[in-house]
Task: structure prediction
Amino acid sequence: MTKGLLATLLLVSVVVGQEKGPRHAGKTTRPETSHSRFVKEYVRELTSDEDLKVSAEKELSQAKTPEEQFSTGIYVSKSIQLELRSQIGMLRSMRLDPPYETLIPNLTRFYQRQIELQQNLIDISSKFLAGPKPGVDYSALAAKVPQLRAEVEEAQKGVFEAAPLVFMTLIDMKPDSHGHVSHLIITKEEKSDLQGDLDVILKGQPDQGDHDYYISAAMVLRAAFLKGHKCADEPWD
Result:
């Protein structure tokens, strides 16, 4: 496989990519995080990851030679790792009560997996950037790239698939007089604030067509807000 072809495969993988179960250790004394704060953070992370993806595409498009492409790929992967580590740190400062207690650990697990996969891509790019070395199976390294790409997509898919549950944290499960779950736990002002955050990431995005997982997750949340739930400060029937 030529350097140019391998570089292309690696760069596609980089652009694509940018704790499970309840804990039974000692009893936590931290109060539950406000659900609106958690959802706002989830949307902020989607926006940051989408911005990083767009920036990465621009950076990579400007790299011409295989050496420049490998070097840029390493830079992009490192940038993704730094952002994901920051997001993990923020999420680990939060906590949700049952039945949502596994949502934050699962999100951090998806982020950690992406960090590991980006490191694999960095390692491969570094080997090719260093030039031919005895004992290195470059064909095997090249063959590993499509597998890494698929695994990055799977980790990102996990973040997208969490979107419906993220929205559910905002639903007041107390039924109204008709037996319907019709209200959110947030006020009209808080709802407007979250919708404004979604408008930022979805600006200019067509409603139809293929979208990456970050945009798709934001669209899931926007559609959920449009289903007609009343806010906490609106009358109950």
Notes: Helices lie at 3-16, 35-61, 66-92, 103-129, 138-161, 163-168, 188-202, 213-225. Residues 188 and 234 are 8 Å apart (CA to CA). The chain has one domain: 3-16+31-225. The radius of gyration is 21 Å.
